[in-house]
Amino acid sequence: MEESTESMMNEQQFKYFAFISYNSNDTEWGKRVQRKLEHYRMPATMCNERGWKRKPIRPVFFAPTDIQPGGLSEELQERLKASRNLIVICSPNSAASEWVGKEIEFFHGLGRTQNIHFFIVDGTPHSGNPDTECFNPVVDKLELPEILGANIHEKVYAWPWLNKERAYVQLVSKLLGVEFDAIWKRHKRLLIRRIIAWVLGALLMIGTLVAVWVYNQPFDATVNLNEASVPNEQLPPLHDAIITLTLDNETKADTLVSMNDKGLFANIPHRFLEKQVKMSFTAPDFMPVDTTLTLTRDVALNIYRNPAVYGDVHFSLWNPETETFIPNTKVEVEGHPAVSDANGKVVLFIPLEAQRKTYKVKAPFPLYNDMLSMPCGENDVVEKM
Question: Could you report the per-residue pLDDT of 357-366, keeping only the tens digit for each?
Answer without folding.
Answer: 999 999 999 9
